[in-house]
Specification:
Length: about 325
């Protein structure tokens, strides 16, 4: 039997505000399993978006991808998450990460030991959501003293806590403390396998993988729609996504020989686009989704390509 992941869609961070709730309702109506919101510095807040789209929809599961741990006191984060989980039981997932280092430094919130901080944060957040009273260890940056949520605030269903990270040490930490991991785009089967080898979970571990997506009966049209959204993936920080691929050396050479991101994207061969994005005909994209599931991805999150994300939803839903 062919394995399939849950299929979600990302709410674009810069979507026109008049379309945000419409987008969420449309994703719900079309049958997507999940909707993931974005919290990037300077855009919309993750918790506020999540509350709004949960209230505007009826069944779709909503993930926050991702909350930078160091900008939120963990006790107050627990209050926010518990509130969402109480009001919408079983429909909330929470992604937590380091945050982009440059962003965090720009707001004075990059911890001295980011990996240790994240591990303690996730562990403490889960303890608070479970009703435990927490006192941090001496010297901990969390500095909690006998902190607990009131019993009236505790959720019946504790949300899954996923870490949004990359890099071997952070992925290994995800395997130790998190219920799952959010992998940024492009999440190929090769990258998912490599990441899971580093996560090395001792038990069930969710993997939510982001991918640019375009679906069309004309494969060439789908590739053309997806290609501009892949322009940035040649940046050095994303090498971990590319290096497991069989064409990694050629990919890096193409990026090095391209004067601009736009030139690089235009020169990407169709066969690479088909592997770096969920792009192509409905049958081809379904096959890629199955390959992701076989590699361990439990949630495939589609990032709508093209100028009109709302209009793209019905075509993406053809793979459901």
């Amino acid at each position: 039997m062919t394995r399939t992941p849950a299929v979600g869609v990302m709410l674009p961070r810069d979507l026109d505000p008049t379309q945000v709730l419409t987008f969420a309702r449309r994703a719900d109506d079309l049958g997507f399993d999940e909707l993931w919101v974005v919290e990037d510095l300077g855009f919309r807040g993750g918790v506020a978006q999540t509350a709004a789209v949960l209230a505007a929809t009826t069944r779709i599961r909503v993930g926050i991808g991702i909350l930078p741990a160091a900008v939120r006191n963990v006790a107050f984060a627990a209050m926010e998450v518990a509130t969402l989980a109480q009001l919408f039981p079983g429909r909330v997932d929470v992604g937590i990460g380091h945050g982009m280092p440059d962003w965090m430094r720009s707001v004075g919130a990059w911890p001295a030991r980011p990996l240790t901080f994240l591990e303690e944060y996730v562990t403490t957040l889960r303890a608070l959501l479970r009703g435990e009273t927490v006192t941090s260890a001496p010297g901990s940056p969390l500095a909690l003293v006998d902190v607990a949520l009131d019993p009236s605030a505790l959720p019946e269903v504790v949300p899954d806590l996923l870490t949004g990270v990359r890099g071997p040490r952070s992925l290994a930490a995800a395997g130790r403390v998190a219920d799952g991991t959010v992998l940024a785009e492009p999440t190929t089967p090769e990258y998912a396998r490599a990441a899971l080898a580093q996560i090395a979970p001792s038990g069930p571990h969710r993997v939510a993988g982001y991918d640019v997506a375009a679906v069309d009966d004309d494969a060439a049209a789908a590739y053309a729609a997806a290609r501009p959204a892949l322009a940035w993936i040649g940046e050095p920080d994303w090498a971990v996504h590319i290096d497991p691929l069989p064409f990694a050396a050629e990919f890096h050479a193409l990026r090095a020989s391209s004067a601009t991101r736009e030139e690089f994207a235009a020169r990407l061969p169709d066969e690479w686009v088909a592997q770096l994005a969920l792009a192509g005909t409905p049958d081809a994209v379904r096959a890629r989704l199955a390959a992701l599931a076989e590699a361990g991805v439990t949630s495939a999150v589609l990032l709508p390509a093209g100028p009109d994300p709302l209009a793209a939803l019905p075509s993406l839903a053809r793979v459901l």
